[in-house]
Amino acid sequence: EAGVAQSPRYKIIEKRQSVAFWCNPISGHATLYWYQQILGQGPKLLIQFQNNGVVDDSQLPKDRFSAERLKGVDSTLKIQPAKLEDSAVYLCASSLGSLPTGLSNYGYTFGSGTRLTVV
Amino acid sequence: QKEVEQNSGPLSVPEGAIASLNCTYSDRGSQSFFWYRQYSGKSPELIMSIYSNGDKEDGRFTAQLNKASQYVSLLIRDSQPSDSATYLCAVKGSYQLTFGKGTKLSVIP
Q: In whole angstroms, what separates CA A111 from the centre of its chain?
């Protein structure tokens, strides 16, 4: 089974520039997540999609970050304009599903991430 | 704010010893608990999941859950240098998976 694909692997931009990241989840995975991981910290959820609908974007800085998942498959995450504090690894993950009740046996599979440096 | 707390370490253990990693969480409604391993510069990799109170064993790994104490732990028996990594505890509430900051484990040959 192919894993979660992300691109680019690395990106260096100047502050106030814009940047976009792409993610292709595992085939058949309905749920897609974007996480931000700052060095030395655990991943922080930015946005969660179920098919092509947003389930949770409460921690997404909507004044500068946007994300979409057209046709319920690929997803893009955009930052415009970037700030120095956006320097982090942006991880995309997917899972079979996300149920609000009962037990979830659906561990997430992460992509290799995009390391963003804002200078 | 749902929180997941871990001791950041580093935790150093000699090769062959048992490594014990601990995690506490704030959301009493959490039902699913996961341990991820993250090597430096790599993405997190799921190694264990646990849903019921008690122990769950998988090879050299044992996850322990105590919902009354809101406590999850991971034991690694016969620790190997290849186990040296950051271990992330993750707790799933209604929808989202919340991660702790991770504990860095170093296994000394």
A: 9
Looking at beta carbons, which residues of chain A come within 8 Å of B43? 91, 110-113
Distance (Å, rounded) from C-alpha A37 to C-alpha B97?
14
Report in angstroms the alpha-carbon separations of A93 from A113, B20, B48.
Answer: 9, 27, 17
CA B39 to chain A, closest CA, distance in angstroms equals 12
Residue of A nearest to B87 (CA): A42
Instruction: Quote the CA–CA distance of A97 and A90 in Å, as a whole number.
Output: 21
CA distance A107 to B55: 18
Sheet holding B61-66, edge to edge: B4-6, B19-25, B71-76, B61-66, B54-58
Tell me the percentage of chain A whose pLDDT exceeds 70.
91
Residue ranges of chain A with per-residue pLDDT less than 70: 1, 97-106
Asked, as a colleague might, if the bond just before A100 is cis with ω within 30 of 0, I would say no
What distances in angstroms separate CA B12 from CA A22, A53, B107, one per listed residue?
Answer: 37, 44, 6
